[in-house]
Structures are given as structure tokens and as C-alpha cells.
Amino acid sequence: MNGNADDSLVKVRGLSFRRNERVILENVDLDIPRGKITAIMGPSGTGKTTLLRLIGGQLPPLQGSIEIDGLNVPALKLPALYELRKRMGMLFQTGALFSDLTVFENVAFPLRVHTRLPENLIRDLVLMKLQAVGLRGARRLMPAELSGGMARRVALARAIALDPMMIMYDEPFTGQDPITVGIIMKLIQQLNTTLGLTSIIVSHDVLEVSAIADYIYVIADGRVMEHGTPTALGRSQSAWMQQFLQGLPDGPAPFHYPASDYATELLEADDA
Amino acid sequence: MIWLDSLQEFGQITLKAIARMGRGNLFFLSVLRALPSLRGGTDLLAQQIYSVGVLSLQIIMVSGLSVGMVLGLQGYNMLVDFGAEQSLGQATALSLVRELGPVLTALLFAGRAGSALTAEIGLMKVTEQLSAMEMMAVDPIKRVIVPRFVAALISLPMLAAIFSAIGVLGGFFVGAGLLGVDSGAFWSQMQSKVSFGEDVLNGFIKSVVFGVVAAWIAVFEGYDAVPTTEGVSRATTRTVVETAFAVLGLDFILTAVMF
Fold first, then answer.
1. Looking at chain B, which residue has its C-alpha nearest residue A93?
2. Contact residues for A178 (Cβ-Cβ < 8 A; gap 6+)
3. pTM to 2 decimals?
């Protein structure tokens, strides 16, 4: 494991999760260091998003422990879990903005629900959060009027509204144009440093993640395949790792879905 | 063995249905447990009563009027053979208050408001808004489900009352206005033969029961929808179909017990 375990904000030990008998995660160990950007990478459908949901306590694990700041998430009662979640932010893949509220009200939502601040203070806080993501001018727009990238930035402003200690990003770069990707990368880095956050990014965008992450875990087939700094992983000897990092279509991860012999199957069709 | 396969399939379907019923009941319990949270959110409730109840007024009023007018016509044709057209007021009012008001309102409500509730909640699930709420330490049952459930519960009996009232007026316009039934007889027959305790109250109880069922089905189907576009469209259809079956079935039972 990386570094001293006491520096970890999130400690995952022996985590297993199944969905309808299908193994999604099997005996996963992770340490997310405080104040750093840690990426969880891997092919689609390997349970990266599931892992975020497990960390956020939205799914109960089959086995194992998930400790956040000393609290074991699966064992927490709902009120304690909600208290913990107030200190966590999460950026969903789609942004998940409330479609019936304006940009301003979306960012104000957690403040209105969880604090009793006077209206003028809420206004100032919301404007500050929106300024941080560069969308103060868009505060009167409805979510339907935003581009995908803008929606994610508003969602980011909402996620930091309560000044959390950590923030989880679910596929923040997927489906965005290069400029937006650049903006989101800059925001993730900037917020991490200026707010002293701990960031967890789930993604399969190798280049972007390698550029900003301090540490990377690669998950495939429900297990941690490798972990290390971006440079260390780049030098990995594993053929699978090289296939993943370079995006090669065939290799240890086969191009073809498992099937019977091609020629035999074609001949069978003739017989029938 | 073909019969073994179909037996297995039947078993699977049954198990799935039972599991869904179980989820539905657990969901209902969690909604009931979250009811006290409504105290802090009266503005949310008002908003929902508007979108669930007020916006359904149009279809309820138009349907009520047309049903009442048809009842006036049909009732008159039948009663006039016995020279009993003076009883038109009683006949119209009793059919509306006891049966047609609560049942038709519940069916229309499922089509207009129930399906909209399911689609709205289902889409909130698809777009991860419900998950986002959970991650912001806000219980979606309290914030999203309870106001909608209670709004539907409050709206349906009121809409049923409006349906019946407008229906009676429709019957009156046709009977007294067009067909020449004495208007004094129309109202006095109704007043003397329709009992508040027996007919109006039982009709009201029916609409409250239908309100609970329609609201429960609508919010549960939305919350339980498979989070895809196809899943939401299926859930919306299920809301209308299930509410119709439940309302018609319950209506028979309630009628047998009450009258």
C-alpha cells in the first residue's frame, strides 16, 4: 500500500460486492491519501462507479470494510451516514442537477437544507461557488439550457457548497469536448489545492487522469490489477496494463467475446 | 421437457411478482414513517398539490360535466317510461356520489396525474437526481416522495367531490333545462333520498381509499423503475394499468361492504 496508512482518508479492506451472483468486486484493498488526487481506472463495466457508491454508502458491500476518516461506512446508521455525507461531495456523470431548479437554486440546495444561514449569506456563498467554476453569470439559467460541460461545472459548485473534506468524481471527462475537458481538469486540480480537498476520480481517460492524478489504482475483473504513481504505471511490464494504457484493440483483453470455434459454427449453420 | 420449462417460467414470474409486492409494501412503510417530515415542507406540498391536483381540474371537470349530462339523458329516458322522471335528481346524484365520482376520478387521475408522477420520479432516477440527493444527505423519500404522495392523497377526494358536484349540475342542465323535469322536484328528490351519512360519506371513504392506492402505485412505480428510458415508459404504463385494476377491484369490495 502507498505511504503511511494514517495519511489515508479512505481505507478499503477486503471489499467484495456481487450483483445477482455476478462478482463485481472481489477482495479489493485501497488507500486514498488525504489531500491528494487519487484515480480509480479500468475498463467499462468493472465496477468503478459501484466502488464510488460503496464508498458513499449507497450500496451495502457483501464483505469488507470501508473506513472514511475513521468511520466504518457499512456499519453506520442512517443519521450518522448522512452526517458523514455532508462532508463528502460527489460529482455524477450526468451532473444530476435538479431539473426544476435554476443554477443558483441548485447550488443553494444543500445550504438551504442543511444550514439556517440568512438569505444574503446564502446568496454570497452561492455566488462564490459559482465564481470558482466560472459560471456566476449563468446563475439564472435552468439546467436544460446548459451544455454538458456547464452542467458538470454547476454540479461541481453544488458539490463544494458545504465545503466537504473529499469529493468523488464519476467519469468527469466522458463525452466532453477538449476545451471542457481542459477546464474540468484545471478545476479538479485547483479545488483540490485551494480547498485542501481529497479527490477520488473514477475514469477510463488515461491521458487526462495521468496528467492530474497523484496516484492511480487500476481495477479490472473486480480486482486491483496494479497501483502506483502515473509514471510508475507507465513503466509497468504487464502486457494487460500496456494494452489498457495505449488503448490497443486486442491483447490480453481479447477483442472477441468468448465463443465457440468460428469455422465450426459457420458449418453448423449450413447443416441446419 | 416443455411443461417443466413453462412451470419454471411460471415460478420465476410468480417469484418476481411477490418480490415486487414485498418491495412495494416496504416502500409504503418507509413513506409512512417519513410522513412527519412533511411538517417542515409545506411549500413543497403546496407545489405538488398544484401540479397533481389543480392541473388535473380541467379533465376532471369536463369529464364530470359530460358524465352528468349523459346520466341526465339516459336516466330520463328510462324513468319517463314509469312516469318517474321526477326522481332524475336522485338517480343522477346517487350514481355519481356512490360510484362514478370516486371510480372515474381515480381512473382519470391515474391517467393524468399518476402517470406524470411516475414519469417525473422515474426520470429523476434516470438522471441520478435521487442519488445526488442521497449523497447530499437528503432523503429522497422525505424530499421527493412524501410531498407527492400526500398531494395525491389530498387531491383525489377533492377532485372526486368536484367531479360529482359538476356531474349533478350537468344532469340538472339536461334534465331540467332541456327535457323539462321540474327543477324543484329534481333538487327536493335529491335532498330527501340522498343521505349524507350513507351515500356521500361512503363515496368519500371510497375516494380516500382510491387516493391512497393511486398515490402509492404512482410514486412506487417511479421509484422502483428500471433507470433507463425504456424502464420509465414501462413504469408509466404500469401505473395506469395497476391503478385501474386496483381501483375497480377495491370498488367492488367496498361497495359490497358499504351498501
1. B128
2. none
3. 0.87
